[in-house]
Automatic annotation (TrEMBL):
Protein name: ABC-type polar-amino-acid transporter
Cellular component annotations (GO), alphabetically ordered: plasma membrane
Protein location: Cell membrane
Similarity field: Belongs to the ABC transporter superfamily.
Enzyme class: translocase
InterPro entries reported for this sequence: AAA+_ATPase (IPR003593), ABC_ATPase_HisP-typ (IPR030679), ABC_transporter-like_ATP-bd (IPR003439), ABC_transporter-like_CS (IPR017871), MetN_ABC_transporter-like (IPR050086), P-loop_NTPase (IPR027417)
UniProt superkingdom: Bacteria
All residue ranges annotated as the ABC transporter domain in the record: 11-245
Topology versus the membrane: Peripheral membrane protein
Length: 273
């Protein structure tokens, strides 16, 4: 196990630990993401995926370890974290748009306040990113007038408007109706193709298989295994990975299992049929 950061990595995490009180949520994480690489993080609910992402941009303060983003050690107490965060785009499960601002205004406000861009320049950049996510013509729409999928694409365009060096996605399609998921994944796929560095927490295994350079499987605060999608999703080495994949790839099978168990229990009770 290396303890030195990987030179030139977009994200490098060494010996990362995070506890909330007595609960240790990250139990020593080591991994890195190369520039231009797409890494998908998968794993059961509660395994620490969101906490890992939040430690990368210091929305959570790590209890131990070192996190380096694009050559800057963000866990250095002297670091100007606002400066670092500006280089990281973050997209959450819930879209976090300002409800009282139009799509265009949602994209220009941080450009103007944080990057000090003038109105005309900010609007030009905003329009180009709305077009990139397939939302030309929706500039004047308020979030409530947009579908969940459209709102999430506005959120992605907003992040892109800040010229991030890398993007973190935390289950970006989990809150969406199934028919809206595809458009968001298509935008993310295009972004990956354009060379964006992306760290993506997702349960979309077909996306992970097709787009990820690498898949990381987490369970109980640790990385259990990582490798290419073919290795981790196609031929997992660990039982915990296999169990998890069986559940996400075929939830119906698990429901059937559950139904079977209920039937058996009912029979044992003498209440079946
Ligand atoms: N702010 C917090 N305070 C206390 N416990 C937390 C906090 N954030 C997350 N946790 C706990 O940490 C564990 C991992 O959470 P999380 O990183 O959200 O997992 P995942 O994203 O994989 O579902 C869970 O047990 C969760 O309840
Ligand atoms: Mg989460």
């Amino acid at each position: 196990m290396t303890t030195e950061p990987v030179a030139g990595a977009a994200i490098d995490v060494r010996g990362l630990r995070k506890s909330f009180g007595a609960l240790e949520v990250l139990r020593g994480i080591d991994f890195s993401v190369a520039r231009g690489e797409v890494v998908c993080v998968i794993g059961p609910s509660g395994s620490g995926k969101s906490t890992l992402l939040r430690c990368v941009n210091l929305l959570e303060e790590p209890s131990a370890g070192r996190v380096t983003v694009a050559g800057t050690e963000v866990t250095d107490p002297e670091v100007d974290i606002d400066r670092v965060r500006r280089r990281i785009g973050m997209v959450f499960q819930s879209f976090h748009l300002f409800p009282h601002l139009t799509a265009l205004e949602n994209l220009t406000i941080a450009q103007r306040r944080v990057l000090r861009r003038g109105r005309a320049e900010a609007e030009r950049i905003a329009r180009s990113h709305l077009a990139r996510v397939g939302l030309s013509g929706k500039e004047a729409a308020y979030p409530a007038q947009l579908s969940g999928g459209q709102q999430q694409r506005v959120a992605i365009a907003r992040a892109l408007s800040m010229d991030p060096e890398l993007m973190l996605f935390d289950e970006p399609t989990s809150a969406l109706d199934p028919e809206l998921v595809g458009d968001v994944l298509a935008v993310m796929r295009a972004l990956a193709r354009d060379g964006m560095t992306m760290l993506v927490v997702t349960h979309e295994m077909s996306f992970a298989r097709e787009v990820a350079d690498r898949v990381v499987f987490m369970d109980d605060g640790s990385i259990v295994e990582e490798g290419t999608p073919e290795q981790v999703v196609g031929a997992p080495r660990h039982e915990r990975t296999r169990t998890f994949l069986a559940r996400v790839l075929d939830p119906a099978a698990v429901e059937m299992e559950g139904a079977g168990e209920a039937e058996v229990a009912a029979e044992a009770d003498g209440t079946a049929g």
